[in-house]
Every structure is written in C-alpha cells, then in structure tokens.
Amino acid sequence: MYQQMIFPNLPVADIEVSKKFFTSLGYTLNEQFSDEHSASVVVSDHIVIMLLEKPKYAEFTTKAIADADTSEVLLALNAESREKVDEMLDRAIAAGAKETRDAQDLGFMYGRAFDDPDGHTFEIFWMDPAAVEGGPEQG
Question: Which of 21, 52, 91, 134 could in theory staple to 57 by disulfide, Cβ–Cβ 3.0 to 4.6 A?
C-alpha cells in the first residue's frame, strides 16, 4: 500500500554543523541523497528532513529565504512518552539547540520546543493514545 512521505527542506548556514546536530539527536543520514552542500536526515520511514546550505536551497525557490528570527513553520514531531520528550530536548540542548519556551502540560498532551542551530523551531510532543483514539473530549 502506498504511504505518502514528507520531506521538509530547511535552509542552513553550515551543513557540517547541521549534520552533527541532527545525528546527535539520534537521526541518521542517507548518504545517497547527501553531498557537500546538503544532507538527507532520516527521521522515520515517512519523514526525511532535507538540509540545504542557503545557496543550494535558493536553487529550489524564487522567494527570498526567511531570516532565522522569523517563523513560517513549526515542525512538530511526536514522541512515545513524556520521558522521551524530555530526553530529546536534553539531547538537543546538549547538541547546541536553544529551548524556546517552557514545557506545556495539558494532561493529555505534553510538549517542549527548541530552535536548532539555524533557528528552525521543532516541537517534540506526547499525546495520550486514549485522546487520539476518541477518548474523553478535551475542552
């Protein structure tokens, strides 16, 4: 059965810094789709982040590349538990990320956020499976 994938493309200043950061989080690189100006970061079977140095990124768009102090997208990735959320944030901070806000604990959902070395915002969150499967309405 066909499974759609997502390939977020992110502009980066230094591909080596970005590769080191994302592999420090436990992700792997797909060398087949990486070169000296880009890296293919495998997050899961269905999510691959493409890191492109800014001149290479510019080859794929006619738009100006946004400054790191602006926000156009928030990349949210789920985790299997609250503890895994905290573990990922700890690894991200140790690898050079900046935590961007306090943890949000809504009971049925828990999340934390960080900016990578280029200022892209990632949120790592856990949601109670009962809430996803149509558990009690959250209001």
Answer: 52
